[in-house]
C-alpha cells in the first residue's frame, strides 16, 4: 500500500538562497518550481534518485510554512509516502486511531492529491500521503 518515500519536504526562507547547496554543492538535478497558492508556498523539486526533495518557501506570513519557520527555523518539515487510493488510506488510518489533518485529500504540488497525519499520532513526524494519478 505504501510504495516508497515519494519526497521529503524541507522548509526554507528563500529558494534562491537554498537551491545552490542542492544543485551546485550536491549536484542534484533541479526539476522545476511551482507555486501552490492554496498553501501559500513556492515549491522547488530536486531529484535525489528515486526520491525527491521538496523545498518549500512561504509566499505569505500566513502560510503554514512561514509559521513553521517562525517557530522552529528552517529545516526538515515532512516526509511524504507515495500511496495508491489515498482516500482509502485516510479512512484506514482513522480507523486505526490516527489523527489526520485532512479527512479528504487536497491538491498538492505536481498535480498530486495529499493528506497529512498529525505529528501527535506519529511520534513527532509530519507524514504526508501523496497520490499521483496518471498524467502529471
Ligand atoms: Zn510534500
From TrEMBL:
InterPro entries: Glyas_Bleomycin-R_OHBP_Dase, MeMalonyl-CoA_epimerase, MMCE/EMCE_epimerase, VOC_core. Residues 4-132 form the VOC domain. Keywords: Metal-binding. Transmembrane segments: none annotated. PROSITE patterns: VOC. GO terms for molecular function: metal ion binding; methylmalonyl-CoA epimerase activity. Gene3D superfamilies: 2,3-Dihydroxybiphenyl 1,2-Dioxygenase, domain 1 (3.10.180.10). Pfam families: Glyoxalase_4. GO terms for biological process: L-methylmalonyl-CoA metabolic process. The keyword Chloroplast does not apply. The keyword Metal-binding applies. It comes from the Bacteria. Belongs to the methylmalonyl-CoA epimerase family. PANTHER family: METHYLMALONYL-COA EPIMERASE, METHYLMALONYL-COA EPIMERASE, MITOCHONDRIAL. This is Methylmalonyl-CoA epimerase. It comes from Cytobacillus oceanisediminis.
